[in-house]
Write a structure and sequence with these properties.
mainly alpha; Growth Hormone, Chain: A; about 400 residues; globular; 14 helices; disordered N terminus
Amino acid sequence: MRALTPESPSEMSPFRLALFWLGIQAVWGALLGVSLQARTTELSSGNAQIATNELATAGAFVAAIVQILIGILADVRRRSGSRRIEFYAFGAIGGAIALVSFYDARTFAALTVAFIGLQATLNVAIGPYQAIIPDFIEGRRLGVASSWMAALQSAGNAIGALCASFITNARVLGASLSALLLTTFVVTATHVRGSTLQPSQDVGARVQITRPFVDLFISRALVYIGFYTLLFNLFFYVQSVLGASTIANAKQLTGILIVSFTIVGAAGAALAARPSDRADKRLVASLGGAGFIMALLLFIVSHGVAGAVAATVIAGIGWGVFLVADWAIACRVLPSGAMASAMGVWNLAIVIPQVIAPALTTWVLTHFAVSEPAVASRAAFALALAETVFGIAWLWRLPRKAIGN
């Protein structure tokens, strides 16, 4: 019987490396767009929109702290030859337990504990896992590998939103998402276990706050503030502008829009794969951002489902293109010898917007005394448009030489 030999970086399967991302993103696709709002509406005694924002904010703070601390530890382990699988395992198993608890909660207090627990455990895996591409993929294949991460992120979000919208039994929903999370973990961990780590040219490096790092962080944060402003207000847009009559109807239509967004997002990711390897990555990201901005404008002026669906398709394609270029730029800018630590900091550009987006939206609506639901939803989307424009514009502060192509 022949012994297994480690796979070289050129033989690694980007699909199997990225599959765990599908399971993780299915969880967030179910929770952040549909289940968090719906479960809070069911269990909170006060204003559901405020309660949702508060719970999302608390979870985001926990995620930020965990990712930074775990990122440092993961890089120490990487320098000792670890493939970081232990972090993936803890996050997958702990996340599955917390997820089941979230959907089984019978009080708002229990829901809060479960959601905070999910953020804490799953983010143990997320920071180290996002270093998987530079850990195992050679530089000339970063764009293709990034496209798989973006495509499976979109696919996972679609699966999660679809499950949250149409599986009516909460326990079945929690068990299904947990099973998907654990299955994708096993596939990725098995592939990584027999693989060869990419040599790092800066082993032992520390995260340095360089100008390219800062500009990439600010740009990404601004774009994600726009994204989360859209996501957190889509449910209420469906209720007020599209006229969903019940919570169940609003959940289903919101879920359909999110699924559509993520499916076409996978197509956008596929389109951007080769350009992200061959062209100026800032241009590719900007083209994706332009599509997202056009979609937000269409959401604002639309009055019916047809316009909302068209806007969703345009937004999804643009977002998929942006994600690929964004990931490819990060793999060039961040230090390979401290990739998990850098990813933990870089991911704050996703976590912090989860705090800022609802807080800023609430401030704008309160400051300008916008109380009519349909007007408030359109105002929130206008704010998302402005945030995205600033984010894409800031990206061009990155020097060409810092990102390769």
